[in-house]
Design goal:
There is one protein chain. By secondary structure, this protein is of the alpha+beta class. The protein has two domains: 210 residues, Metalloenzyme, LuxS/M16 peptidase-like (Cytochrome Bc1 Complex, Chain A, domain 1), CATH 3.30.830; 191 residues, Cytochrome Bc1 Complex, Chain A, domain 1 (2-Layer Sandwich), CATH 3.30.830.10. The protein contains 16 helices and 13 strands. A hairpin with a 4-residue loop joins strand 6 and strand 7.
Amino acid sequence: MAVVNGVSLPELPSEPLTLGSGLRARLIPLPHLQSATVSFFIRVGSRYETAQTNGLSHFLEHMLYRGTQTHPAAHDLSLAIERLGGTLDAATHVDFTSYDLTLPTETIVKGVELLAEVLRQPLLTEVSTEKQIIREEILEDLNEEGEQIDIDNVSRRLLYPDHPLGFSIAGPLENLDRFETTDLRRHHTGHYASRNSVVCVAGAFDPREMRDAICFNFDDMRSGESLEPSGAPGDNATTRFSYVHEHGSQTDVRLSFHTPGVASPEAPTLLLLARVLDDGLSTRVHQTICEERGLAYEAFAGNDTFEDCGVFDFGASVEHSKAPLLVETVFELIDGLSRRAPTPDEVEKAKRRYLWDLRMVRDDPEDTTHFVGSSALFGLPERIGTVAEQVARVTPEDIQHAVRRYLDPKEAYLTCVGVLNQELLSDLRGLVGA
């Protein structure tokens, strides 16, 4: 057991295993729990797409629910999973896709078998039905004119023009309409392979029985290739301001900055910077924007990281006329940390809260599989103690240096979705030099 900054951190008892196919497996027995989770992580997502294939990873994730050779209809597959006591959850991200199945202890081995069947033997039928469902999902992020109004999608398109990191995960409607079963098969063959994946099981299970189940169900999985994403682009945007007109009572605002990736030596510093700014109601973002200025009901700050790059965001939804004042207030917050490092008490509290979160990972088998499995996928430290020690070494001066280096107002990107007149637009553009 590690003790970091006075916080006891029991280590996760992870057993690494590499199958003959090249698939990396992690078994983490946690006998104090009443359930177990099997999770599968694949390097597939919008970052691995082109403008012509954007949305295909998300579409394929949906299609895996449509049945297998043993369970040939979506209803059959869902019924089989639910009879085991769980529900299959999946999510497509920018640079990976995850599948999670949490079950009672007595059915987890059967769950591993069923998840392997879903991943390896999808029928990919009922394409037209699933297209209708995803179409409705895409429409949620469009206005009546067909413009993208999801602030996250608009913001990423501004920061990463003409690069897959700027794509939306669901993709455009015209791509969805064009995709066929052959496209899905090709994408499945190219990405759903052992060398491109990690399987992780955590919770209450018999380690020997689980090892046998993983080997039996995944050892002959096609090896495939180890895929790497296209390199992160430089700061090559032609504009630093984006606005989409959308009727509503508020304007959604994002102020964003380029940062390094999750594997960077500065990642722990940026993690703590985010927590100093926004980790509870007593921290700077909420206190300044909400309590002192009354600009928003809620506001946030956070670092969204990929392998080799990231984005630090500030955001809130405000009355239209308050959008410039919100941006000015964020710049004041940045200036305050740039001029004077956060106090030792602020940093100590942020560290302790993060370390407590690390300790609580072992209370939830899905949290455990995501901590260990995603780390294994991207070659990051898998031990809680290692991560804790990296965070513990961060000083207030490190955080101040990161603010000066990465949160330079002259390098900010501003995205707004709402109702702004010409005067407000001019003020906002002026704030970011656009």
